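User: Can you write out an input/output pair for a complex, sequences first and structure second?

Assistant: Here is one pair. Inputs:
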Amino acid sequence: MKRNSVVAGWLSVLCAGLGQWYNRQYAKGLLFVLIHATGIYFISTILFSKIKGLITLGEQGQHLEKVGKIFKNVPGDHSIFMMIHGVLSVILVGLYIVFYILNIRDAVAVGRKRDSGSAVKGLNNDIFPWTLLALPIIGVLFFTIMPIVFTSLLAFTNYASPNHIPPKNLVDWVGFDTFNKLFNMNVWADTFTGVLTWTIIWAVLATVTCYFGGILVALLINQQGIKMKGFWRMLFIIPYAIPQFVSLLIMRNMLNEKFGPINQYFRYFGLEGLPWLNDPFWAKVSVIVVNMWIGIPVSMVLVMGILTTIPKDLYEAADVDGASPWMKFRNITMPYVLFATAPILITQFAGNINSFNVIFLLTSGNPATMKYNNAGQTDLLVTWLYKLTLDFNQYNIAAAVAILLFLIIAVMSVLLYSRTRSFKEEDMIQ
Amino acid sequence: MKPRILFSYLLLILIAIACVYPALWTILSSFREGNSLFSDTIIPTKWTLAHYRDLFVERVDRKIPYATWYWNTLKVAVASMVLGTLIQLLTAYAFSRFRFKGRKSMLMVVLILGMFPGFLSLIAIFTILNTLNLLDSLWALILVYSAGAALGMFVAKGFFDTIPRSLEEAARIDGASHSRIFVSIILPLSRPIITYISLTTFAGAWVDFIFARAILRTPENWTLAVGLWNIIDSYNSTEFTLFAAGCVLVAIPITLLFMYTQRFLVDGLTAGASKG
């Protein structure tokens, strides 16, 4: 009596919907047959050739052709169009295959239910969450998944100005050439290692300064004997409340070498002003200091939240034992705060690697240098890839940098997750 | 007073000055006569409101359509707030309340995709929109802001998880449909989380520079972030007082919003951190 599931399963393999039909779910069967038919129709007519286009990326670019007696510019294949269409087609075919597999599984499952004699449920019960999710899924598919796929593909092409910009020219697959260029070709390799090094130095310095700055400020406010704690806290949170692009553009003006107020004060005291944003070294100092201004309030708020969770009885016990304020600080407050905020350190580090606003709005990656290709002295990987995309049309290099950057961040996140798990299991603090 | 406390107060005052000074300086500059960055005194010798008026008057010799920028920013922020909040609520509700096939694996996908920093996909979004000739439209920007909203649904899901199921079951016994339950029971109960999500998406769209600059190409379509950046970048600080006035008008609503919801946002921040 276990026939139904097998028969329904094989019928559905033969043609989607037949199994459902066999299971006497006629409406569902009809729907599946229709989806199957449209699927096959579109794959054979359009999608197949589009996918072929994704592989070839076009045969001929814009070219001159003799029409009658004169040569005319004839539009050729547009590689990027073909790529977009190709990726879309692959996604559609993928969806179709998923549908087919689900159809077989459904037929088998329903068949099994019939075999065991239990009631067959209608279609409606399972479908409501999917109607809720339809819009979000489409959004994520087109604006998150497809861009990720597309970026990964771009890194393996030669899509870059000046020689490979459609519609004038074709774009071709070049394998790992782009990465090779990035690691081994003189100027590109110099730029990449230079920018990468500064990115790491920046991320470490920015994280450490903001983290310890935040702890210091929080402890400063939280000392016994300081009055109006709420007032100070609100005052110090102001930098966090102002939109970043506004405060950063203002800072850029304040640090202006000739007319900015900072240098004006220096001169007021009879000192020579400093080239805050124009000298490679001082530009780096400036971005880190400005980043402290922006980042310390966040750490401060976090640490102040943690300080309130330290059990009071720990301090009372310490008082009974006759501990000095310094000992209480060293042996209770500090370990507690460090332990509780350690996971945040990694998140902030990963965030600082991608800290676009501070660099781009403050220095635009400048001061410029001859040593680098399309990058300045304070450029991070993210600002560099932004410029490569928008200003210099070096899409393939930008895509390769994006992939590498993602790998770095992914490794950090995995590290973070495994770390926090170990923290949770350790149970050091009750 | 103990010297330690005295010293602490001194430090606090110094930090306070550092925190407030840039904002104060900008506000004062926006009331100063003339247009230069340089001034002899912090407090303007001659006060004027001309710059604020200037922002809303078009002049031929410079392209600073500030009112248009403000309007664009408002449109983009409100539209992405509505769309983004809706998407996020729907996703969170579906994952929180229903046990459907493939739920576990979809949750995993959301978690992994959420790790991918949004703007690394900028290259692809830019080239795709560029090739399809869809750049330079506010709608493209709104779609980019709100389409990925589903990935940030974990806060809302956590909130929905805390709403007792017995409420819905009672309603279901009374014959309410799925959509009726969502609209009449869940939504009214989730006012705080809706406020939180809409405020953060609104603020996010209001202050974003990265995508706005990539997608919007002509000055008439710019948002405030791109416009103000451009004043500094292309006028090289020669229109500084005007820029300062522009900054004040951008920052005021968002700063007030922040101060008003401070407790709320700070709680969210710490909650997210300890979840880490």
